[in-house]
Amino acid sequence: MATEASTSAAADAGGGxxxxxxxxxxxxxxxLALSSSFFIGASFIVKKKGxxxxxxxxxxxxxxxxxxLYEPLWWAGMITMIxxxxxxxxxxxxxxxxxxxxxGALSIIISAVLADIMLKEKLHIFGILGCxxxxxxxxxxxxxxxxxxxxxxxxxxxxxxxxxxxxFYATIVLATTFxxxxxxIPQYGQTHIMVYIGVCSLVGSLSxxxxxxxxxxxxxxxxxxxxLIYPQTWLFTTxxxxxxxxxxxxxxxxxxxFNTAVxxxxxxxxxxxxxxxxxxxxxxxxxxxxxxxxxxxxxxxxTILSGTFLLHKTKDMVDGLQPTLPIRIPKHADxxxxxxxxxxxRSxxxxxxxRSxxxxx
Length: 361
What we know:
Helix content is 68%, strand content 0%. By secondary structure, the chain is mostly helical.
């Protein structure tokens, strides 16, 4: 009887009845997260085509240009991404970040497949295996994700955000971000992909926490408990806007400078890892789970990371071709006037050829 009572209480806290072990709120968050992955995955490709078209006739985003703002194709990709982000925003209002964020792996699959079709960035057979691993890992996390924390007002979220542990995390993130922007990007932004993506991922972990807080505030407001009267709601809104603008700027630079098939998985891996860490610190997701559930979730996440690793390592491989002599990737304009893009996945010292992704086109 005690077990039944605790199960019923947990279901009530989740915001609905249980359906195959998931609460109604978690199911809503799951559906929204899946639709978000589709739109965001497609937006990477549309934006990349817009960036390439704009770069052919103007100053590239990777070197500080903003000619893409006049390119309709880039705006089409931007609108697609906004639709996906809105769905993602809503998902965080219903489900914990540890459930919603890893499902971004599906956007990698969509992005990789569309890049193969539309951008001729070939997807190797091991890349397909990586996609399968992403799906398996995502499914594992979905089936063992914690139920959403019951929150009555945005003031409760503010209390969680101002606890010493999360304040320490936020301080470290902001300090690292400023060091990357002002110290490392001017020197290494064009040659080291981790610099741009590091900024996006660090800032992204804070934006997700703020997005979740704002989503909860809006959900409570629509249910009849007005949260717009609290100054914390507007503070979280300001943080969301600032973080998203920063992410957009440096993600555009990363996409314009490096291969899409590399940017997507690395960004996903770093962003998801930091977001889960931030959520565990701020919302204490694991406090409501057993050790078995936590271990299973981590196994699912490691499976997803294995999939993204395969996508990353095999993105330049072509079936039936053997490695040739090592070469350097030249930084010069190719036949269509757009600078050759891509980064070496292995160093020349390792005896692995450093191939430009355009060599496959």
